[in-house]
Amino acid sequence: MNCQDIKTRVGIRVLLESFNIFPVKENQRTAFYFALDRKEKVPSLAVDFMKNTAFDFGTGKSYDVISIVQIINRCSVSEALKYFSRFDFSLLNSEEKIGSIVQKHYEIIKTIDIKHSALIQYLQLRKVYEQQDLVTEIHYKMNNKKFFGIGFKNNSGGFEIRSKYSKLCLGKKDVTLVKNDLNSGKEIILFEGFFDYLTYRAINILNDETADYLILNSTAMFFKVENELFGYNKIFLFLDNDDNGKTIKQMVQKKYKNVEDCSILYSDYKDMNEWYCKQH
User: Which one, of 180, 203, 176, lies nearest residue 190 by Cα?
Assistant: First the structure.
């Protein structure tokens, strides 16, 4: 597949999702993302889903899907082309341009309790099989192909989908807030991904059964809950030990009072689930 084929067949949204990059603000045609090559508080990268291009207002640079891979991976064009070889192009083509609207076509066939042996094995591999009641087995169709995975519902009704071979979101990207009726002390425990949430529920490090739980499902979703966090008296952080996680940690510590960083528990690992899997 040549450069032109990739530029026309690979949706820019799906490409960015492959790097776990999601919009901060969006409408039907365009979206704003944080810059790809620097840290910033106000998103400056404008993505046009119809044109399949992006423009950085901070630098004046324009990007297509190939140059996006180049800037993120800091690689040549030929190396960027190799990155695309890892994708199932039938999945990448799940976005079609219809008028002025970009729609991601999928159909949820059924949601059931976790029963498929592959998903059971994956939960066992991640050491959270006992928390299977907190997730769902999702069977869905994309581009006339059937898939299945572990689903975790967000506040907008979308599902984070995970399996050994897939990582995507069906529906609108959003956070997941799990409210606790017993939360009289107004405490909240913050996670980046739902496997860390499942890990916490497996071991209950803080021995706290009354706190609310907030799963960002992506650090790019933090803007959705900035104001809501002011309503809590105590914030516990179980974020990843990568650049994104550290950035959010610094923002929370600077903006709110009574914040406790719990990532010291797994400081030598990427996240809490990786640490827990190494210990058991």
Answer: 176
